[in-house]
């Protein structure tokens, strides 16, 4: 028989095999589980798909009492509980979707000590009734899932999570385990401070997902580019396509279906029943493509998602990493593909500028977007950039991302940037008028459009000084100059304005090295090329 010292470990291994049917722990899981089973506090930073759930589920089974899981994913609680019950775990939940009778039943089970796990929506903790309920039962541990939601600095802040800071004072003897897939140093620090986890053990997993190939391409005809990718590399594969708006979800799904791809839409504007049906078909059937807003995917566990495609720029690297992390959970080769263009940059900047909230909030969103743009425009290994962002400095180039596989050509774009910035400077003098990127490019190319003649912009010295580049090249220049903060977008009209650093370029004290966008061969030429 095992010695006393081995007991928690063997009980945990036993639960892993007997309840969950797995042979062995994954990297990191055993240590975390033994620590929590032993009553210690823990902060777990582990990428999506890493296996965080077992880290609190097994200790909850091994320790006496009920494990209380705080999760913002109310829509998924029923599924999570059903999945656990199917394994014979006594699980239930309390949230606003239940009627008082249902809640009373769950509360009685908890008080009778007949629950291994109780999922709780964070807003319930604010209710005095909940605290008193928890006081009267026996709690084995608190698990705080999606712990980054407590971080105001993060990308997914939920005010209700601030309430969780009281857990420690109120139930000092109950171990707490906080878990998240977001691990930027800033978020890590904020979770630690807000949840009082300075004395907890911190488990930081390797965030690399080596089986995912990251690719970021300039957006031209996004739906067509996506179709080409699916046909060439992912025929018959299951995947997720993310779009920013509901209407582009619908249009993209229609487009794929009309081109013979089995695709389903998913967004908050669809009927709850339709959404549920699409989600369950995606999970159960092979080779379906889910076209969705970011409302889809949190907590979705499908191991063989072969690609995640973004047709619009994500708002933050955290979001991007979490979404792309849904590809290849089974460890097999998978693709994360993103198409982004100038209009994305302008649109997101506008959204930030016109969003409510305080200046500090807008500033944070803007920092998040800048980091995302830097990742898009980098000429270095994407993975090195991603890992550095999450605090893993000094990785070597991966050999499995687009910049490693086809190193981008660069060119000295200083003169082009100067021309663009001086055009912005000239237009800025017409204070009452607001001009966006399209008009600027028309001026640089010397096009006498209606708007150009209306404002007599053909008389500007910069009119027609940029004919060495074509329209798409100019849009690339604007994009990259924006991405580097040498130019900014302002207000609801997407007006381009100079920044503090623009002067360095105009004066010639700062050179601007640019990434050359690949020129896409005309489709007919590509076809007849064989
Ligand atoms: P996360 O919450 O970190 O995104 P999950 O807890 O959902 O990840 O786990 C991802 C997948 O890995 C699930 O299908 C889970 O059942 C599986 N898994 C977790 N731990 C193990 C293990 N030790 N052995 C085999 N599969 C595991
Ligand atoms: Zn690389």
From TrEMBL:
Cofactor dependency: Mg(2+); Zn(2+)
EC id: 5.6.2.4
Helicase C-terminal domain: residues covered: 222-375
GO molecular function: 3'-5' DNA helicase activity; ATP binding; DNA binding; four-way junction helicase activity; hydrolase activity; metal ion binding
Entry annotated with the keyword Nucleus: no
CC per GO annotation: bacterial nucleoid; cytoplasm; replisome
Region entry Disordered, spans: 514-530
Keyword hit for DNA-binding: yes
Coiled coil: none
Tree of life domain: Bacteria
GO terms, biological process: DNA recombination; DNA repair; DNA replication; SOS response
Keyword vocabulary terms for this entry: ATP-binding, DNA damage, DNA recombination, DNA repair, DNA-binding, Helicase, Hydrolase, Isomerase, Metal-binding, Nucleotide-binding, Zinc
Helicase ATP-binding domain ranges (all copies): 33-201
Substrates-to-products reaction catalysed: Couples ATP hydrolysis with the unwinding of duplex DNA by translocating in the 3'-5' direction
Similarity remark: Belongs to the helicase family. RecQ subfamily.
Protein name: DNA helicase RecQ
Organism: Frankia nepalensis
Lineage: Bacteria, Bacillati, Actinomycetota, Actinomycetes, Frankiales
Section of the entire sequence shown: 15 to 544 of 633
């Amino acid at each position: 028989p095992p010695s006393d010292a081995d007991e928690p470990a063997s009980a945990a291994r036993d639960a892993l095999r007997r309840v969950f049917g797995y042979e062995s722990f994954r990297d990191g899981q055993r240590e975390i589980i033994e620590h929590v089973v032993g009553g210690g506090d823990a902060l777990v930073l582990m990428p999506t798909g890493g296996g965080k759930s077992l880290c609190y589920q097994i200790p909850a089974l091994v320790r006496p009492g009920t494990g209380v899981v705080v999760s913002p994913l109310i829509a998924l609680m029923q599924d999570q509980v059903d999945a656990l019950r199917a394994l014979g775990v006594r699980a239930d939940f309390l949230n606003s979707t239940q009627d008082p009778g249902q809640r009373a039943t769950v509360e009685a089970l908890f008080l009778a000590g007949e629950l291994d796990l109780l999922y709780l929506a964070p807003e319930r903790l604010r209710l005095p009734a909940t605290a008193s309920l928890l006081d009267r039962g026996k709690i084995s541990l608190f698990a705080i899932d999606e712990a980054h939601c407590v971080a105001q600095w993060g990308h997914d802040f939920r005010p209700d999570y601030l309430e969780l800071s009281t857990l420690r004072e109120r139930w000092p003897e109950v171990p707490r385990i906080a878990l998240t897939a977001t691990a930027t140093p800033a978020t890590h620090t904020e979770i630690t401070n807000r949840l009082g986890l300075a004395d907890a053990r911190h488990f930081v997993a390797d965030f690399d997902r080596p089986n995912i190939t990251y690719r970021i391409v300039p957006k031209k005809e996004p739906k067509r580019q996506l179709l080409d990718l699916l046909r060439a590399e992912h025929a018959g594969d299951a995947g997720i396509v993310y779009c920013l708006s509901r209407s582009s979800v619908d249009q993209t799904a229609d487009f794929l279906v009309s081109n013979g791809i089995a695709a389903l839409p998913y967004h908050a504007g669809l009927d709850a029943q339709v959404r549920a049906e699409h989600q369950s078909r995606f999970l159960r059937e092979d080779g379906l493509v889910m076209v969705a807003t970011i409302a889809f995917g949190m907590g979705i566990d499908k191991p063989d998602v072969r690609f995640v495609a973004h047709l619009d720029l994500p708002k933050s690297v955290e979001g991007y990493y979490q979404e792309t992390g849904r590809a290849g959970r089974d460890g097999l080769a998978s693709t994360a593909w993103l198409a982004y263009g100038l209009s994305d940059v302008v649109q997101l900047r506008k959204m930030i500028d016109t969003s409510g909230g305080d200046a500090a909030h807008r500033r944070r969103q803007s920092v998040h977007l800048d980091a995302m743009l830097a990742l898009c425009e980098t000429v270095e290994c994407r993975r090195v950039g991603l890992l550095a962002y999450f605090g893993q400095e000094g990785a070597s180039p991966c050999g499995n991302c687009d910049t490693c596989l086809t190193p981008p050509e660069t060119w000295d774009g200083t003169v082009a940037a100067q021309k663009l910035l001086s055009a912005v400077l000239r237009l800025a003098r017409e204070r009452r008028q607001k001009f966006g990127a399209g008009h600027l490019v028309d001026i640089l190319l010397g096009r006498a459009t209606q708007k150009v003649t209306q404002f007599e912009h053909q008389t500007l010295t910069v009119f027609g000084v940029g004919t060495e580049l074509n329209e798409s090249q100019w849009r690339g220049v604007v994009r990259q100059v924006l991405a580097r903060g040498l130019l900014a977008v302002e207000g609801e009209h997407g007006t381009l304005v100079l920044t503090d650093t623009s002067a360095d370029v105009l004066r010639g004290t700062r050179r601007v090295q640019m990434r050359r966008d690949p020129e896409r061969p005309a489709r007919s030429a590509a076809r007849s090329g064989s």
